[in-house]
């Protein structure tokens, strides 16, 4: 665990926030700082590792078994979410956690409270790694990166550990939905793969949301309020009207399980013009398409009411990978067994989000998602138990073992 902790702390110290407003790939050049570090660490282990211009590290551990075994890949992303600062992360390490609230920042009175996050109770006696209350932690997905790197190091240090070909991939820009936009599946060379990008210990996911983003621009007309009768068109009020016409019960605060949602992620406005950003999610493809149709019909209604002031643009992000993974369900079964071998109860559930594995599955690389151990991603309350990352690394080795057997 000491090696794992050292790796994780070194990785989260590197700022890798992705930038959804950038047109480059990677979206942020600082992502290369960690990618180059990982390439060198792999090479220092004796593993052939390449880093291309798009920010993909691809590495190969050749098979040492005399059996015919399909090459298996393990993938994690290096970027952190732009939803919170990923700069100057100062992790706090609480050894032998005894339960109760954790003070993250005394000056700002930021506390990780058990009453708000009751799942903390299952980690009594574990080593908890938290933020200092001013940034996210980066366990999403540097926990997955560290787990893969530790598994790779173990394999290279134990030549008696028999395995087929193992492929390792580190990607940029997953958090902004462009993680594998230029990923060369053929070059990667795996027949099946697993992303190590899930949450709490035991999670296994092979179905995710269908996902799209919506950008809305509303053009108003600003007139002096004293003389605005019959002339002023307040774009902010139209934006409020649009949002109110979407079903309240389909907001993230009211949904769980397989229920989809409309989520307003950003709004900026004046009387003259307002922009809005939404993400639209649903596991069911038909319901997903219906959500987009509803938003389109609302925009059309407002344009008839106010005179072509609303412009709506959708951007596809990813589809539900279940349809691509299910025909190869044995890779899910192997993951379930690998988790059980680590002494953990598997928690097979749908992802209320997405991973690089969703798009990879549609690119011909079936790719379920395994836990990396973290909680409360994308914000100041993020934390990860060290032992959960250790178990993620153990599950990787178990999957390799099961394919060899």
Helix-strand layout with pairing:
Elements: H1 2-12, H2 31-44, E1 48-51, E2 57-61, E3 72-77, E4 92-94, E5 102-105, E6 110-112, E7 128-130, H3 139-157, E8 166-171, H4 185-188, E9 192-198, E10 203-205, E11 210-219, H5 235-245, E12 261-269, E13 273-282, H6 285-306, E14 310-318, H7 322-325, H8 330-341, E15 347-348, H9 356-362, E16 369-371, E17 383-385, H10 386-404
Parallel strand pairs: 3-8, 3-9, 9-16, 10-15
Antiparallel strand pairs: 1-2, 2-8, 4-7, 5-6, 7-17, 10-16, 11-13, 11-14, 12-13
Low-confidence stretches: none
Order of helices and strands: HHEEEEEEEHEHEEEHEEHEHHEHEEH
Fraction of residues in H or I helices: 25-40%
Alpha-carbon distance between the two ends:
27 Å
Total number of strands: 17
Overall mean pLDDT stands at 96
Q: Assign the structural class, choosing from mainly alpha, mainly beta, alpha/beta, alpha+beta, or little secondary structure.
A: alpha+beta
Q: State the shape.
A: globular
Beta percentage is 15-25%
Q: What is the subunit organization of this protein?
A: single chain
Order of strands in the sheet with the most strands?
A: 1-2-8-3-9-16-10-15
Q: If helices are DSSP runs of H or I spanning 4 or more residues, what is the number of helices?
A: 10
| Major sheet size, sense and barrel closure | 8 strands, mixed
Overall radius of gyration:
23 Å
